[in-house]
Amino acid sequence: MARKSKFSIATRENRIIHLLSQTDHKTSAQWALDCVERIFFYLKNLEYEENRPQIALDTLKEWIKTGNFSMAVIRKAALDSHAAARKIDTDNETKSVARACGQAVATAHVKTHAIGAASYSLQAIHRANYNLDPEIAVQKERDWQYNHLLELQTRLNTN
């Protein structure tokens, strides 16, 4: 029996970190949101009935759209999404998605939370593909994350 591989959210890719350091706050938040929305279907596929991760994403969308910031609202949405993740007994993709949502909304407060959203998104992909070749799936998504951030940044610089 093959041993289940582990995925560490502490793993960082320098090209993404470097590009993110040059990206403005709202673009970083949009990138975090886009990363999470790509894997959000894992919640729906498992008939996950918790709505706090969705509320976190909706809160982030509102901040991106309006720029209105309430630390109490952002903090509550982030902590609630992480609380939803803690309710999940097993380390599976659902737990990773809930964590990714919490990190994404926290980007409204501090833009570097965007990397946490992206990392938990990668962890969700790794966990969902453990019977296949998770490293290939994760690398494809990591490449998408980099290219998408580059595209968002380029779009910003040309406007």
TrEMBL record:
InterPro entries: Imm5-like
Location of the Imm-5-like domain: 19-150
Pfam families with a match to the protein in the record: Imm5_like
Domain of life the protein comes from: Bacteria
Name under which the protein is recorded: Imm-5-like domain-containing protein
Species: Leptospira perdikensis
